[in-house]
Write a structure and sequence with these properties.
121 residues; 3 helices; Beta-Lactamase; alpha+beta
């Protein structure tokens, strides 16, 4: 399958998540933090590279303490929240949301999207 076709597949899977109220930025990346299916963009690449680092750190801590991996990490900052979750062993999804966004529907859609990505990777 060619790269253009894969980009279309990823974008169609991410579409429902992109449309959830409160989502301002969304990126799919490998577990190393490098973007998948998108041309490099400084903001998105910084988002996924930092998310990958935080996810690895959270995994090390939870595996050491509880022998489990985190479902997602949430960074709550003044302007909103950053939510990152794994999409299997090969990918992660990072989402920036507004400060007043309802987090429940976003996490539900994020989990569904991560499962779909996991299936095709």
């Amino acid at each position: 399958m060619n790269w253009g076709k894969m980009t279309e597949i990823y974008n169609s899977i991410l579409l429902d998540l992109k449309q959830v109220e409160g989502v301002t930025m969304l990126a799919l990346a490998g577990r190393d933090g490098f973007l998948i299916g998108e041309p490099a963009n400084n903001d998105m690449e910084m988002l996924t590279l930092m998310s990958a680092t935080m996810l690895r750190a959270a995994e090390k801590v939870t595996n050491k303490l509880e022998k489990v991996s985190p479902n997602c990490i949430i960074v709550d900052y003044e302007g909103g929240k950053l939510i990152t979750t794994t999409a299997g062993q090969k990918a992660l999804i990072s989402v920036l949301i507004t400060k007043d966004a309802s987090i429940g529907p976003i996490i539900n859609e994020l989990e569904k999207t991560a499962c779909k990505i996991k299936e095709i990777l």
